[in-house]
Amino acid sequence: MTPVSDSVLESLHTTATEIFTGAIEACNIESAFDRRIRFEGNTLHRLLPDGSGPDSVDLSNYKRIFVIALGKAAGAMLDVLLERMKRRQGLRGICCSNQLPKSRNWRFRYFEGGHPLPNEDSFDAARAVLAMVKKARKDTLIFFLISGGGSAMFDLPLDPEIGLEETIRFHQALLASGAPISEVNTLRKHFSAVKGGRLAIAAPEAAKVSLLLPDVPLRSLDALSSGPTSPDHSTVADARAILAKYDLAPKLPESVRAFFEREDLPESPGNKGWRPPFFPKLPWTDAAYARRVTAAATMSGEEEPFRDSVFELLLSSHDLVENARTLAQNAGYHVAIDNSCDDWDYADAARYLLERFHVLRAIHPRLCLISGGEVTVALGPTPGAGGRNQQFALACALDLAKYPSEHLTVLSAGSDGIDGNTRTAGAIADPTSVARARAFGFDPEEALGTFNACPLFTAIGDAVVTGPTGHNLRDLRLLIADNA
């Protein structure tokens, strides 16, 4: 077999990168806003109402408007909302993202929350938001702009005796567990004073509009940033079952383990029997405020406190995949889409997609197999530098090495531009990746086993580096064959 030429591989790498970056660029937040909502004077109109809340909201009915922006796209979402919404009277807000914007609005407080692990600003932002929404009454409208990443960068334990260091260790254990995001965020919802609907119920009388940019499966939208404004249908029993399933209890700090073992551990809003947890030093311990929150919680029907809430989905992983489809088709490829390995272990997902890829490319020599969503990685005790995308790409590289004369490329990268504990978005693999890595002194199998793929891909020049994109629409995997 004749090895494939460097120029062909370079062209394939360029094509894969252009499809990935082009798909992200096409997910324009401004356009997404304009497809879903429109401001006419002081009235917000919903262009595609889905039955959640009213079809329009008259801002002139409210004396105060609060805006709470959370997640990796918080700054971009906030800028677009303020541009579209001309009213400024009574406007105040808080923005918490993983990087501070260059220009800031004086009406807002800004926090740089930690990701993938919380930091002091994560706690400070949560305290500031709780203090703000506590002031909301019936004359208040709250916009919640929620994007991925908020679970870490915006957090505060329900038990105030649990500190930041213990919370960081809790998040570390979840990230290393290999559990899918829906299960990880079930635990976060029950742990946090601002997740699992508790942020919404903290302003029981206010009107609420949640604009969502999810990094979770669409079937699990309440997992987005651990669902601060969504009713939570998971239970304390579910949370404890997940702890047992992944043997997490021994890996948790003693205070966190004791918290989940409490007999009086409260259910989340949206579940029968929910009640404000009267832990000391939380807003609910204020007697008058607690009466207001309790009144909302005890209305008929578990979801009654959320009845008038508006939820609008702006963009999703579906948009990212469809944009990639269009770009690949325009480049002359036969396109197949397979998102069925969402939330699978990375190794299982790699085997499955590679099997489909090899079958399909025998029929379609110019093929682009597209897969959206995320894979999981169960980390060992001392993981190296990497993330789920680089782990997936390295697993694919070991397979592609069997086809030295084929024009094949696999790209796996995160739409937020960050993969695991690295500053890369992901990586590209081809039939020469393994040989080139060995030439640089790397052992690909060892790198895979120690979750240390980033140094390998960086050394051979195949790391995908975009920097933070301001988006978080999950991951994109591209398996491309060009043997026509």
Overview of this protein structure:
By secondary structure, the protein is of the alpha/beta class. The protein has two domains: 6-25 and 317-482, 3-Layer(aba) Sandwich (glycerate kinase, domain 1), CATH 3.40.1480.10; 29-313, Rossmann fold, CATH 3.40.50. 37% of the residues lie in helices and 17% in strands. It has 17 helices and 15 strands. Strands 6-5-4-7-8-9 form a six-stranded parallel beta sheet, sandwiched between helices. Strands 10-11-15-12-13-14 form a six-stranded mixed beta sheet, sandwiched between helices. Helix 1 crosses helix 12 (317-330), helix 7 crosses helix 9 and helix 13 crosses helix 14. The longest helix is centred in the N-terminal third of the chain and has 21 residues, at 6-26. The protein is globular and about 75 Å long.
